[in-house]
Amino acid sequence: MQVAQIIVDVPTRQTNNPYSYLIPESLEKQIQSGMRVQVPFGRRRVTGFVIGLSDKTSFDGKLKKISSLVDLSPVITPELLKLSEWMADKTFSFKISCLQTMLPGGMRTKFKKKLLATDQIRDTYPAIFHGQNEIDYDRQKFNNKTIAEILALRKSNQIKVHYELSSHAKPILSRAYKSKLNQQQIDHVLIDVQKRAVGQRRLLKMLYEQPSQTFLQSKLLHEGVGKQVLDTAVKQGWVTETQVRRIRNPFLQPVSKSYPLDLNEDQQTAVNRINNAIGKQTDTTFLLEGVTGSGKTEVYLQAMAHALSIGKTALMLVPEITLTPQIVGRIRSRFGDQVAMLHSAMSSGERYDEWQRINSGQAKVVVGVRSAIFAPLENIGLIIMDEEHDSSYKQSDTPRYQTRDVAKWRAAYNHCPVVLGSATPSLESRARAMKGVYQLIMLPHRFNNHALPHVSIVDMKDEMAHNRHILSKRLSNLITDRLEKHEQIILLLNRRGYSSFIMCRDCGYVPQCPNCDISLTMHKDTHTLNCHLCGHKEPIPTVCPKCHSKRIRHYGIGSQQLEEQVKDLFPTARVLRMDVDTTRKKGSHEAIINKFGAHKADILLGTQMIAKGLDFPEVTLVGVLNADSALQFPDFRSSERTFQLLTQVSGRSGRADKQGEVVIQTFNPDHYAIQLAKTQDYEKFYHTEMRIRHLGKYPPYYFTIKITGSSPSEKQTAYEMHQIAGFLRRYLTNKAIVLGPTPKTITRVNNRYFYQIIIKYRQEPKLKAALDDVLVKSQTKQQGGLLISIDNEPLDFM
Ligand SMILES: [Zn+2]
Ligand SMILES: [Zn+2]
């Protein structure tokens, strides 16, 4: 008999060691590594991933048997199985969560539990069964008393529990018909069919013309062949009825074919160097640093085309919010149906279908966001990460992986190059390029030599003296000018909602979220105060709940209010707003972009999602209304973020043949991140910021670890975190810096108290083992509500 090693999905006793199960004889030939199975685990039945097979001989003791197969073919490739091991180790997480992360959302299975009762039990417990013999067991629906009753019934075997697999994504099946007759037979049949039986004659004619074709019912109905006709045709034995899988099409619009553009000298050099590495099958990492508008995308496209031309596949990643129809359209117009897309805005069904196309080898080019790094592509010839500095490449939940690291792992496995592209590379990547770990390729000129936009800085402290409006005089004059010239404008305000908070003018009361340590944001469209952390909502008070004064005012302008003010100031302008609130509905993001792109609006305003990746040739003015929003965060990366955001949004202005203009409004006009964004001087920013990082012992000079602990009790959280810090200090050398534990900037979120420990180090051979130990020990404390997470190279220290 054969034995399978299985990583089980057990949230409370997660383990990175596989369990052994016997393979039932009936499944012996079917089971392969990378498939999911159902196995008994204690009293339950759980899902698991088969990660290896072996002979029984090496096992003594009694093994349980696999109950059933979840997948009919492997869903995890051998490469991804290996990757999951590396990832679990690197991110201090469990193999099972790495494996689950690799599958598209719709394929993560859940089990529905069903309770089965005899007639007698059904009638004795009407409150549980409501007259049914079979009910869904949903923990949320029952109170504790009922759950206890159910458990007792189960223990005494008076009811049974059945497990049913519920996968969110299922293939869509469509009814279809195929001819059973050859052309000669059809000729024969036609003689007997009456002239007025138009539908039947039409169907037979179609079958005659395309005898081997399978016709979808929807197509036949469209052609005027009705349901009755089809029933007759089946009965007469003219056709067979079958079902075919229909592929959901996530691409809304067809695109026309495009061809490679002529490259300038820098672009050509870049393409040559990348193609050379593809051909030689070396896992070189390139940092492609190009100013905004330098034509990086064309370099990507031509290198991808080269990988395809030698029979390889290509993977291209873009940040969450820049996977715009514009970029996808460009890639599809070059590579057609070979392109598969993976994106969180797609339905789980669409993602499932696209994943199937990749897994079956139909798709050769994958373009997608962070999670697409796990696309089951084989024979990869090139991996591209556009906007490599973007924060969406780091997953914020477990497993907390950095996509860049996974990309490099896959490149090494596939012997192919990685291209990291950016106008403002992360300091980590640029520092590696300086040390020769990465190869640096520069695109210092804008494509077709378009000039960089002219940037001016407005000091809002001066402005406030004579103008209380959010738009400075300079910016509003320029908006008037552009509207007259019929050119387009982008306004960035990185704060959603109507106002940041409301306050009583008499007693100073500011409404806070009852679950979190944060003030509530006013949303005018829904007439509510919202918590942006936990989602709590409450009505906007008309009198102060504390002193009953009616003088409640709102402070700080959000994107909703900006829209209102802009419409007031420029009543004839057509204004679009893009933020989380206006893009919640599927397709709305795309609709706004298309509308603005077709110049059906004059002003596009919104939060940082408008800053990246968009390319509108008619935009000649960009206004940044509060350049300080990112600087205010108490974090070592806030200058880098500010510089990146300002540079990127400035790059939106003047991308075609018109000179662009940018206005940056700020209360810190002398800050180096703002001054250097004005001249788009990445070099100087890099050197300035590196000096500061060096002095503060921050990355990329130091490695960092963030340990976060939370529980419903602040006392418990603080106590446990002190224990952990003490434990680590004993383990580490005196060169390591252990900061904390300290309460997080926002200590309470959703009624849990958060503390953190930061470790900065250069070489600590014992650190990994110590942290693994912390993680394993923390499992036993979970019952008491304590959750510990370890973030390797966190994005921030907040
Ligand atoms: Zn008051
Ligand atoms: Zn809250």
UniProtKB/TrEMBL annotation:
The protein's Enzyme Commission number: 5.6.2.4
Binding site for Zn(2+) 2: C513, C516, C531, C534
Domain Helicase C-terminal intervals: 539-696
InterPro entries named among the record's database cross-references: DEAD/DEAH_box_helicase_dom (IPR011545), Helicase_ATP-bd (IPR014001), Helicase_C-like (IPR001650), P-loop_NTPase (IPR027417), PriA (IPR005259), PriA_3primeBD (IPR041222), PriA_3primeBD_sf (IPR042115), PriA_C (IPR041236)
Domain Helicase ATP-binding: start-end pairs: 277-443
Bound cofactor: record note: Binds 2 zinc ions per subunit.
Residues annotated as binding Zn(2+) 1: C504, C507, C544, C547
Role summary: Initiates the restart of stalled replication forks, which reloads the replicative helicase on sites other than the origin of replication. Recognizes and binds to abandoned replication forks and remodels them to uncover a helicase loading site. Promotes assembly of the primosome at these replication forks.
Quaternary structure annotation from Swiss-Prot or TrEMBL: Component of the replication restart primosome.
Protein name: Replication restart protein PriA
Organism, scientific name: Lentilactobacillus hilgardii (Lactobacillus hilgardii)
